[in-house]
Amino acid sequence: MSVRTEEVEITTSGGETMAGYLARPEGDAKCPAVLVYMEIFGVNDHIRDICRRLAAEGYVAFAPDYFHRTGPGIQLDYTDDGMNEGMGHLMKLQADQMISDARDALAYLRGRSDVIGDRIGAIGFCIGGHMTYLTACETDIQAAASYYGGGIAAPEGPGGAASTLSRTPKIGGRIECYFGGKDQLIPAEQVTAIREALAAAGTDHDIQVYPDADHGFHCDQRATFNAEASKDAWRRTLALFADKLGS
Hints:
The chain has 247 residues and is an alpha/beta fold. Helices cover 34% and strands 24% of the residues. It has helices at residues 45-56, 80-90, 95-110, 127-138, 188-201, 227-244; strands at 3-11, 17-25, 31-37, 60-64, 115-125, 143-147, 174-180, 205-210. Strands 1-2-4-3-5-6-7-8 form an eight-stranded mixed sheet, with helices on both faces. Strand 1 (3-11) and strand 2 form a beta hairpin. The longest helix has 18 residues, at 227-244. The chain is globular. The two termini are 12 Å apart.
């Protein structure tokens, strides 16, 4: 399927400018939509590729830049310098602002003539995986695919807010979480805590742990790329979106 892309800017509810990257199928048909949440490296080549891949599957894919307050427009590579710069922005995130950005991004999508407003999901990687989980808790998205979301089971949420895990009972759609068994950034006990919280809340969910995969296993630009785990998680994600959003 042919894909059209564009750089967009939206005005947030706080009056700020939040840029983003959008990919959509060619043509005039109304489509389901997916929010694509970046890692700490910004809306870079990897995240843009994810948007294009989703657009080729029939979705309007929008990657908002939720570092717009501290590092608007950054696109970092997978080096130590990129990691250090990205971590600096990560440490400044505030849960309330993240939730506000998620709601503003949803409002933007629902205001587009090419989006079916009640068929929207989210996908995210690393801190974007956390953002996906948080969005599932605090908005009405129908489907969420969280890839190696760090800090979900931490005692506090971003900026010292209420724990993201404590918000789990508010999830109304289906959520799937994918983790690497070798990921030292997300210990096994945190994955267990997420699994138990979702089960206790009666949330429609699935947790997949890939024993041989590490953090960042889905990104083919990282040394930790794991082709087998990436292929399986992507297959599951597309099945999730097809089931809950259509295409």
